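#struct-help
A.M.: can someone run this one for me? Single chain, 189 residues.
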Amino acid sequence: NQYDGCSHGCKYCYGMVIRRKKYEDWIKSKPRTNVIERLKNDIRKLRESNAAINDIFLGSITDSYQPLEGTLKLTRHVAEVLIQNELPFTILTKSDLVLRDIDLFKGYKWCRIGVTITSLNEDFRRDLEPNSVSYERRIATLQQLKNNNISTYLSCEPIFPTREVDPVQIIMDLKEIVDLFEFGMWSKY
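D.P.: on it. Structure tokens below:
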């Protein structure tokens, strides 16, 4: 995770719970220090230990392509290091800013780019993910990635037991542009 906090402001975010942050503090994201140096050091240690590196997941607690990434480009630099070291990685985001780095992903067979979509209802998104891009823009992002032969996946998590959430409809609507669907836990939020 290149950032501490996430300005998307998703009300169901588990990241702020893990990092023990209040919502107001969590949405004021900051870059983490020495990310690139720490990554290079971790890669060196893993290689020295002969550990198998099956996948490196970017965005497990915070979104790698939140607005701060637009100026800082930490995620882009991380991806460049991973590609230079021929390491597999997966990125998960709620942003179309990931398309800025399509030049890195295109032709690199060991990456998968995912987008989170919990519903197809924009009112639902505005309520629970207030500062994130629209579902329409996320779907367009998946389409562009697919058009560029980049492996795509969709994370539908959490799953809310409300009429605004229909995982089956999400599959039916997006099956042509998504290589892998991932479904998470039910949420009471």
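A.M.: thanks! The CA atoms of residues 65 and 71 lie 11 Å apart.
D.P.: also worth noting: The chain has a mean pLDDT of 92.
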